[in-house]
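hey so i finally got around to running both of the ones u sent me last week. sorry it took forever, my laptop kept dying halfway thru and i had to restart like 3 times lol. anyway pasting them below in the order u listed, first the sequence line then the structure token line for each. didnt double check formatting much so if smth looks off just lmk and ill redo it

first one:
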Amino acid sequence: MNETKVEKEYTDSDIQVLEGLEAVRKRPGMYIGTTSERGLHHLVWEIVDNSVDEALAGYCDDIYVTIEKDNSITVSDDGRGMPTGKNEKTGLSTIETIFTVLHAGGKFGGGGYKVSGGLHGVGASVVNALSTWLEVYVYQKGKVYYQRFENGGKPVSELKIVGDCEENRTGTTVKFKPDPEIFTETTEYKYDILYQRLQEICFLNKGLRIVLTDARVDGETKTDEFLYEGGIIEYVKMLNENKTPIHDDICYFEGQEDGISIEVAMQYNTTFSPSIYSFTNNINTHEGGTHEDGVKRALTRVINNYARNKNILKEKDSALSGDDVREGLSMIISCKHPNPQFEGQTKTKLGNAEVRKIADNIFAEGFERYLMENPSDARIIVEKAMTASHARLAAKKARESVIKHSENEIAAFGGKLNDCKSKDPKEREIFIVEGDSAGGSAVKGRNSMTQAILPLRGKILNVEKARLDKALSNDEIKSIITAFGTSIGETFDLSKLRYDKIIIMTDADVDGDHIRVLLLTLFYRFFRPIVEAGHVYAAQPPLFCIKHGQKIKYVLDEEERDKYLSSLDPKTKIVVTRMKGLGEMDAEELNETTMDINTRVLRKITVEDLQEADSTFNMLMGEEVAPRREFIETNAQYVTDLDI
């Protein structure tokens, strides 16, 4: 049968032209990445970055950031103040141009800033576009200039003088309230997120003072002040505060070439994992880049040369690898560049080729001098790297043995891994289950087509206190490596992951929490790309079962229990039961509450901030006891009444 195809004509009227800031409101993700909690806080960074750029230019000493009672934000600085005259190109005041025209700013080579974190001139205008209202005050020439914008960046009036100020006072204050129509998930700011980033900015800009205030706290405001005269030296000191350094001094090297400055601070500790973080113009380059490549290359070369020259590394010995010389190293690399080129929209990797050689030269010169002037520290550093090298070679043999037997073991796992039937990794998921009894129930309650079960016998090795070679001698870890199919360490290959979801399923008690943290430590240290790619989840077994009439409701915690109970008719017979452990549930109950994709609750494990994750794992699972005790005493919740 022939059908007539009706086509809608594509005409000139179908082409939309979004004027002013409409494009930002239409596609906010293009400008701030996301409209989730992360995007909400990104608005603050955009405004703070403008003030920090004034500090980088040498005109600003103090920045004040306040979360107001209504969750609006105020950012004030003592910089030069934004220009208040008329912009020649737009015909508007410069203030209105900055806040309403995309790509308008002083960071395009016009002489306003030599180095800047805000590169695209969209920050202030984007914040304005995504706010219910925004106000700007500029203090200059003894006057206070003011302008207000509403409803996504529309000016209420022109820039005007609203008062006088001290003749020598200069600076800018920006106030804004995020638009709930854009930020539908939340408009509530998290103090801890602001704290961490503002502290980081002050570490990277020695002498800059930032005061963070939370006016939402009942009774009195909460305030923290950040000021680090030692800059990134104090940053490394903080990174190592829960670790044991192997030499007293924090090494610091700095230099400048062709207008590009490099700063590096470093100190080795007794742990086995490196903590290396790099920045360009205060932007955290999570994926590294040429500044990090140059420093790492120089570190490996300088240590090898020193070890050979001092005959610590014999002629017959293999050269130390990059992994060997970075074991237990805490390092901050800060680059200031007048024209940085970042790879990708998220600015997470520096791409300027010339920086690699400059960073290499500056670091190598300083580090060579340090080793020659501190021979005892130099020997300690080299010997740690040599121990790491021996462990790496042992781990290589152990890894080869594990991988060699992996293919056969998947088929003949001695009953340990109960694999699923599907061959499509995208629909496969594996439950790592605490104990054989829970494993038995999980096997009976699973969907055998897509769900695999791997029961663990006892607690796995704490890899925070062990190198890879020791980890590879642990039977439970070998089982996990075999099941995942990715290998581990140098030969890790994410593309070979056999499951889309890796689900940790443990009891909702202290032992279950401990096993989950041990597994997450393993994943973070040795399988980090799996976590970063979003493959790791924690099952959420319910803590309570509520029966009322013929209905049954499972809830995850006391808060959800109390909320649900308050919604019920008190005249109905209500029975609240605390759930048993996973091993005590029958297969049907385990499936319904924790495994069925239609009814279960999974918590996705993400690594939003690698530095915070690194320090948390080290605190919870590392050698130092005092920080762990303090954390427990601070965060412990004491149960005084079980009303169930």
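and the second one:
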Amino acid sequence: MELDKTLLESDPVQAADLHSFLTNYGAKGMYSPMKFILRLRPDIHKELSQLENRLVKRGEVTDKQIQAFSTFFHETIHWWQHVGSTSGLILSLSHPAQAHINHGHLLEFLKTIGPVKSILKYNTQRARPDNQNSHEFKSVNNILNNFYDIEYCRGILWDPQTIREIYKSPYFLFIGHCYEITWASTIWLLSATFSGTQNVFPDPRKWESKFAELTSRKVEGFFESSRIGIPPLGLFQIYEGQARFSQIQYLYYGSGETLTWDDFRKMGMLDGVYIVGFELFLKISGSLWPEKISDPLVALFLLVCDLSINPSDGFPFEVYHFESFITTNDPGRRFIYFSTAIRENHSDLKSYIKEFSIDEYQVSSKILCDSIACETPLSIAAKIVEWAESTPSIQEVVRELEPFKFRDENLPVRLFFSKFIEFQKSKLEHPHYFCWPGAWSAGTRTSTEKLELFLKHQAPFVDKADGIIYPVDFPGKVESVVLETFNKFYAWNVSYDLCRQWITKEGPFDYDYFWLTTKYPFEDMEKWVKHVFENSYNVPIDSFSIL
């Protein structure tokens, strides 16, 4: 197989602007976590449109189709990372959590102050030391503190280097507080969505005195001006490394095991953020760059990625040790701990994973998780499945997923959590596939079973060659029902974004939602957006005073 750079992703895209995406030569695909959208460039769509069976053996399809699919495969793994890991769940639900936790405070703001935008600028202009305890500013402080606690936690989890700027913000207290509020807000959001779960999910109210004690004792990370070490990578680097090396495995086995590391280096696929995690893993674990892509060391790296992005303290399990709440839940630190454990006590694992089997996954994940006293991803999956089988309100949302028709209340949370549960069920049975999907999705290992797994766990909302977002055509689901859910999902999504604009963005509200569709004129889009906002906050958006 001769690799074609025009079909292979080379630049990670974090912005979700459609025009920038379509005109960025290096960006062949992207997954936008705030919008829950998977996009591909039109040239990738063109190649994939001719491909029926997407998990292929060498000789069944063209080399170009395999390479085009590898980009779709890469972006689908990003969807899996967000919907199938506990870190991804926290990240994905943090956006609706910011709106949910502030909804009552925003209504109070409207009652006491009125429709004013932005709340951040209002606070900057009006706040004084002598009015901070006034009724007027209680809602302002609650809104901004809640919003930024979650915002900063998300930033630190994604890329720890952002802490250098976050430390300068007047809305930042300390990392432990950001983590506590974010985990608690996620659980409160889920509890508000699913009735009767007070004794199912961990109870954040029981954490408050424990975290307050850490603050009083000035435990590092849990008091103001506290300094804590910054890991050299976060979810951004781990996610991209996991997706890229899985893509490389897919292409390697799809090529009949003929491609080499040099082939991928020439394509620019082993540059920048894509190899930060792998090079750090090699350095910490005391390993040299492997000769072949099939080396067990590559499989071990992908396992370390899987373990790192699945913390369990506080969700779905109770907090076992409050002093280590930051370190046990921070993916970058977990990555370092696992890599260190390999070097110091488990170097035999470097050559252990040869067949990408379920037994190899179970044994190696248990060894490494035991080494840092945390739960395995399989234990996490079993816990989630237990909830789904024993809790009526969660059973209900599982049933809603079948026809893809959800109750209106917190619909995006219901949809996303149902997909999270569905993923955990599959992972409990096939953890080796989701850890090493590249090895199981091309070449001699691929099968009808693996094809069905991949298709089952596609991102539900994707673009087509015209750049417009559509719901995926899942087998057995009624198109009109799926389309109705799609429309309601994005109405909620727009309300989250408008809430974000109201709190932090200066100037008028921005109604540019053409990243979603270009089928309607601006006037119709504006009318729809205004209707969405008024439904959420009972006030016309045109009534706002812009500061």
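quick thing i noticed on the 2nd:
Residues 21 and 223 are 41 Å apart (CA to CA).
anyway thats it, ttyl
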